[in-house]
């Protein structure tokens, strides 16, 4: 009998341990947040309410106020490089995507050996969806989103498409699950509608990763007239831009409402930023007091309005001044999902969670803002170095008219700024601080030496756009 009682006790203990393990695993699974990443396109730093804009952005303001504003959040100077950094946690100079964007006719894209963020999250059981703009290659099927880790795709592959016809350079560019799609409507409205559908139909037994990269507020500047009516006092093209941003803000509000209606708000992390600074500040966009614009390495080109929102996990009304970079979302989100970020390819991103939730310093010793044959920039602590070479391409953008690229003119070959004292980069300290220039230049050169040659795709003479981008004729 005693032996029987001992055996029962042993089995009871073992079952207790097993059930405890199951409970822990279930708790870990339940704690994995849903993640919604919203990316605006070409939005100026100063064009949100919390930065004093005359354009009304109530939904963005509300999410920023109930979460953490990321006031020194960096991206790349133009579109495709920022998206590559987000998807891989690696600086785009490692992909050859550090110069310009992936053009419609480009015979390349995000390299296939990269482990993308959605692929990593799928290891943790996430449902993954992209609704909006891809812009990381579509010349072969294996480069399309559904081959790169997304269970579901809706939207377009290129930038600068017509918001109403969904045509870029004569080719149709609207797709569902990487197949031709002809839904009619204004693209911002369609993206919002699909994003809310994904949320509403999501199986809550699995965590969700929803990536919503809007093409708004990128040119061409188009918006239904009703959105421009409150901004009659603004001159064109800023008036139309204001309407576009109002439509984008409305769409963000619809996504936030869908999250609440689904009952998953308490376990959903919402991240927002622009993909680069605003082009043509003062004419179209506003970067506030920040110097420069899209396609430059000044703060106005690479520092963007951003926030992180997770009720109960991120303190409402908090402001994070630690410098962060969009490469940081990759390891941060994988860690929150319980997935290792260890991989064969070196990561540049760092876990940003302690800085966002605990007020810790930046996880970076340095942030590389770009490294191209024409030059680049690096931030180390409060210091920022910009180097310019006349021998090669720097930052190019084929999506904007020439007038929007005039801000990318070359300046002094070496510029040093103390960002905490001079956030608007008015005073070049390079001649007064040669030792600091040498220190930052050594760090920059070490990283630049790891860059692969940039991929550039000049249009082939006689090139004809396909009927549908991304599909064989």
Main attributes?
single chain; 473 residues; alpha/beta; Alkaline Phosphatase, subunit A; Arylsulfatase, C-terminal domain; 2 domains; ten-stranded mixed sheet; four-stranded antiparallel sheet; 19 strands; 17% strand; disordered N terminus
Characterize the structure shown.
The structure is a single chain. With 473 residues, the protein is α/β, with parallel strands linked by helices. It has 2 domains: 333 residues, Alkaline Phosphatase, subunit A (3-Layer(aba) Sandwich), CATH 3.40.720; 81 residues, Arylsulfatase, C-terminal domain. Helix content is 27%, strand content 17%. The chain is globular. The termini are far apart. The N terminus is likely disordered.
Summary?
With 473 residues, the protein is an alpha/beta fold. 27% of the residues lie in helices and 17% in strands.
Low-confidence stretches: 1-30, 400-409
Q: Radius of gyration, rounded? A: 23 Å
Distance between the termini: 80 Å
CATH superfamily assignment of the largest domain?
A: Alkaline Phosphatase, subunit A
Percent helix, as a range, is 25-40%
- The helix/strand order is HEHEEHHEEEEEEHEHEHEEEEHHEEEEH
**CATH class descriptor of the largest domain:** Alpha Beta
Give the strand tally.
19
User: Which overall shape is indicated by the principal axes computed on the Cα atoms?
Assistant: globular
Number of helices: 10
Topology:
Blueprint: H1 2-31, E1 34-40, H2 58-65, E2 68-70, E3 73-74, H3 79-88, H4 117-122, E4 127-133, E5 152-156, E6 167-168, E7 171-172, E8 175-176, E9 179-180, H5 187-201, E10 208-213, H6 238-262, E11 268-274, H7 299-302, E12 303-304, E13 306-309, E14 318-320, E15 324-325, H8 329-336, H9 353-358, E16 367-372, E17 375-380, E18 383-388, E19 414-418, H10 434-448
Parallel strand pairs: 1-10, 1-11, 2-14, 3-15, 4-5, 4-10
Antiparallel strand pairs: 2-13, 3-12, 5-8, 6-7, 8-9, 11-13, 16-17, 17-18, 18-19
Helix pairs in contact: 2-6, 5-6
């Amino acid at each position: 009998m005693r032996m029987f009682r001992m055996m029962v006790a042993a089995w009871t203990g073992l079952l207790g341990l097993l059930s405890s393990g199951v409970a822990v695993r279930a708790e870990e699974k339940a704690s994995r947040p849903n993640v919604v990443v919203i990316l605006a396109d070409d939005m100026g730093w100063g064009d949100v309410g919390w930065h004093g804009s005359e354009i009304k952005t109530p939904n963005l303001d509300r999410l920023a106020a109930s979460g953490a504003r990321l006031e020194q959040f960096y991206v790349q100077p133009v579109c495709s490089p920022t998206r590559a950094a987000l998807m891989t946690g690696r600086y785009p100079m490692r992909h050859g995507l550090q110069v310009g964007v992936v053009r419609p006719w480009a015979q390349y894209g995000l390299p296939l050996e990269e482990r993308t963020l959605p692929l990593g999250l799928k290891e943790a059981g996430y449902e993954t969806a992209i609704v909006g703009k891809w812009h990381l290659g579509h010349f072969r099927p294996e480069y399309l989103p559904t081959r790169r880790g997304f269970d579901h795709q809706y939207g377009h592959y290129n930038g600068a498409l017509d918001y109403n016809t969904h045509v870029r350079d004569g080719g149709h560019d609207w797709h569902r699950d990487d197949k031709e799609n002809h839904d009619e409507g204004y693209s911002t409205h369609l993206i919002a509608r699909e994003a809310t559908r994904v949320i509403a139909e999501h199986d809550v037994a699995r965590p969700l990763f929803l990536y919503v990269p809007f093409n708004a507020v990128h040119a061409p500047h188009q918006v239904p007239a009703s959105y421009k009516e409150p901004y009659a006092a603004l001159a064109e093209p800023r008036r139309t831009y204001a309407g576009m941003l109002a439509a984008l803000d409305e769409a963000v509000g619809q996504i936030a409402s869908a999250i609440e209606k689904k009952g998953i708000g308490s376990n959903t992390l919402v991240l927002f930023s622009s993909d680069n600074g605003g082009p043509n500040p003062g004419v179209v966009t506003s970067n506030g007091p920040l110097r420069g614009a899209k396609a430059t390495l000044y703060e106005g080109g690479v520092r963007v309005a951003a926030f992180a929102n997770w009720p109960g996990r991120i303190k409402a009304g908090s402001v994070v001044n630690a410098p962060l970079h969009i490469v940081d979302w990759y390891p941060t989100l994988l860690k929150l999902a319980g997935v290792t970020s260890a991989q064969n390819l070196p990561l540049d991103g760092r876990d940003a969670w302690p800085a966002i939730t605990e007020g810790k310093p930046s996880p970076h010793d340095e942030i590389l803002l770009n490294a191209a044959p024409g030059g680049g920039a690096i931030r180390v602590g409060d210091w920022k170095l910009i180097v310019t070479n006349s021998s090669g391409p720097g930052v190019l953008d084929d999506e904007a008219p020439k007038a929007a690229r005039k801000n990318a003119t070359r300046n002094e070959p070496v510029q040093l700024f103390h960002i905490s004292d001079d956030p608007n980069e008015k005073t070049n300290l390079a001649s007064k601080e040669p030792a600091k220039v040498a220190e930052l230049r050594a760090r920059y050169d070490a990283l630049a030496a790891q860059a692969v040659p940039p991929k550039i795709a000049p249009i082939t003479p006689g090139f004809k756009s396909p009927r549908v981008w991304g599909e064989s004729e």
